[in-house]
Amino acid sequence: MRELVLICPEAQAEALSDALIEAGVLSVSVEDADGDTDAEQPLFGEPGLEPDVQAWRNNRVVALLPDGLDPELILEQVQDSGAADYRGGDWTLRDVPDADWVRLTQAQFQPIQVGDRIWIVPSWHRGNPDVPAVQDQAAGGLVHIELDPGLAFGTGSHPTTHLCLEWLAGNVRGGETVLDYGCGSGILAIAARMLGAGRTLAVDIDEQAVQSTRYNAQVNRVELEAMLPDDLPDGQFRLVVANILSNPLKVLAPMLANRVAPHGHLVLSGVLERQAQEVAQAYAPWMEMNVWRAREGWVCLHGQRPA
């Protein structure tokens, strides 16, 4: 197989992607053409920060071609369709090597131990003799979270996820109400329930993440409620955790802080060490936030709301 790689500005990316699909390509992905450079541009999707166009300033549009499909014919169809104002300037072809992609993908994700109590185990490692057996969770025993990499963020490999999981493992006492805001795969909400928390709500702005959380909760045999932000009911929680990014966390400060019940805990991550002070300042009107632990340049902030 081959991939057709095109460079286009922000205004053309979405229409170009649609036109390529209509022309017969197998799939299309859009990447930041300035990624890993000083010109890299983050895209945020938290409430109040939704971009008008789901693309970057400069985009790399990658289309997977079926065998035998002429890329010049594809480009001609795109131009003739009028769906995208693309004049065929900058494009290249690259080969996609034959491989067992399922096996290669699975090989990248091994069981992960987080702290003393939590193991994250992909489904293809179920029954792996190298992973210690589940123990009595109520008595502080080992917890297994079965989680496969998917479309939603949260495989358990990132330092911010580790930090939040370690905080939960050391501080969930049993029966706490929990709000996981920006739940991604649902890993933090699932961990909280498996560690003994009570009613747990998981929220994400991405419908795919909500579906992923529901699926992962079912696989792990835990009950939780996953939803979009507009469906979040009123109320406060004994524990609120949000592993997002510093800018959305600052924007969300009033909402998240007011979701914490008196004497309740707020746990934030997705924050670089150099950003910790400014994030803490955003929450200062409601509670004092301090760095609980740092890892690989990232921090986990913790605060307790006064009575």
Describe the structure.
The protein is an alpha/beta fold and 307 residues long. The chain folds into two domains: 97 residues, 2-Layer Sandwich (Alpha-Beta Plaits), CATH 3.30.70.120; 195 residues, Rossmann fold, CATH 3.40.50. The chain is 28% helix and 27% strand. It has nine helices and 14 strands. A seven-stranded mixed beta sheet has the order 10-9-8-11-12-14-13, with helices on both faces. Strands 2-3-1-4 form a four-stranded antiparallel beta sheet, with helices on one face. It has a three-stranded mixed beta sheet with strand order 5-6-7. Strand 8, helix 5 and strand 9 form a beta-alpha-beta unit. Helix 1 crosses helix 2 and helix 4 runs parallel beside helix 5. The protein is globular, with a radius of gyration of 22 Å. The relative contact order is 0.11. The model has no long low-confidence stretch (mean pLDDT 86).
